[in-house]
Each structure stands twice: as C-alpha cells, then as structure tokens.
Amino acid sequence: MKQTILVCDRCPAPKPFAVTTLVLSNGRRGQNLAVDVCKKHEAEIKRCFLETRKRGVSPLRGRHSKYTNLDEKIMAFVERMKEAAPTPCSKAIKVPRHAVQKAFLDLAAAGKLVRSGKGRQATYRKA
Ligand SMILES: [Zn+2]
To answer: Of residues 32 and 60, which shows the higher confidence score?
Structure first.
C-alpha cells in the first residue's frame, strides 16, 4: 500500500505532520498556491486574514487609547481661548484634525461644550 504523508511546509526540520492544506486562490484556475501546514501554522496564517478584516470594521475604536487625555486637552484649550475651533486646537495640541473634530462633537453631544456656528466655521465654548 502506498501512502502519502504531508508534512508542514512552514516548520524547520524535523517537520511535524500537516493537519491541513490551505489554498491561496486568486480567483483563476490553475494558479492556486497550496501550503501544507501543521496546527500551529494553520492558526498563524488564519489569524493574518482575520486581523486584516477586523481592522477595517471600526476605525474609530481605540481613539481614547491612541490620543491620551484628548478630551482633557481639548477642554483646557477651549477654556484658555474662551471660544475655540477644532482646526487651531488640533495644531496646538498636535493631534490630527479628524480626531479632534470627532472629540469636539463627542464633547458637544455630552453637553460639555456648546457649539455656535455651522460646519467649518463652528466654534465651541465651555458649557
Ligand atoms: Zn508548522
């Protein structure tokens, strides 16, 4: 009896038995890449795909951890200026404008800031 035993393509020798064959397809026939992998490498490869997908779901998640004390910095800036707009504030505290803009809106929604004016001309003061 002839038997084919697959070993992991990604492990250095001595190679463990592969538990699965993963096929990378570009949607065309005959150009697929197949790799035989052990359990450890299967998990590793699958994690790459899952992480890429997860990153696209919620770009705003983690804003508070990325820019520490953003809300406090904005409140301090508004207090100092009496009335402030997001753009000069973003330059003053060195945080990207889109993040500052979002934080201003959050603070206004939370009732900590009062907005006057609309769109790009909007200014905020302490509630
Ligand atoms: Zn392996």
So the answer is: 32
Last residue of a domain, one of 14, 41, 57: 57
**How many domains is the chain partitioned into structurally?**
2
* pLDDT tens figures, 38-87: 999 999 888 877 765 555 555 555 544 578 889 999 999 999 999 999 99
Nearest to 37, CA basis, from 6, 8, 4, 5: 8
For 25, 71, 101, 105, the CA distances from 119, given in Å and listed in that order, are 46, 20, 11, 11
- Shared domain check, 72 and 106: yes
**Residue 115 pLDDT > 60, yes or no?**
yes
Distance 29 CA to ligand 1 centre (A): 27
Question: How many residues comprise the chain?
Answer: 127
Output the CA 105–ligand 1 centroid distance in Å.
Answer: 49
- CA 20 – ligand 1 centroid, Å: 10
Residue 97's domain spans which residues? 63-126
